[in-house]
Amino acid sequence: MKVLSSQDEILMLAILAIGKNAYGVSIRRYVSQVTGKEWSIGAIYDPLYRLERKGFVKSLLTGSTNERGGRSKRMFQVTRNGQKALAEHKRVRDELWNGLSDLATQE
What we know:
By secondary structure, this protein is mainly alpha-helical. The chain has 4 helices and 2 strands, in the order H-H-H-E-E-H. It has a single domain, classed as Orthogonal Bundle (Arc Repressor Mutant, subunit A), CATH 1.10.10. Strands 1-2 form a two-stranded antiparallel ribbon. Helix 1 (6-18) packs across helix 2 (24-35) and helix 1 crosses helix 3. It is elongated and about 55 Å long. The termini are far apart.
């Protein structure tokens, strides 16, 4: 099993949630909104490139646009291997959580 970090999991789930418009800025905005914490752009791109090297995400450059001053966007997608890794990660996480009693009643 390939173990994912919490950061990897968050980023891959964000890409899936955003869909076709998943690029650095939109991913950063989404995870900052969901987690309630501001993420630096480095905290987004560094793990995304690592996930890409592992084959869990892939990226492609779009054509340049006038609104971006002629620059293109690097769009991200979760690969089939990434989806399998997420599913396995969820299975393990759920099994671990199911083995605990309600945390609210623990001191």
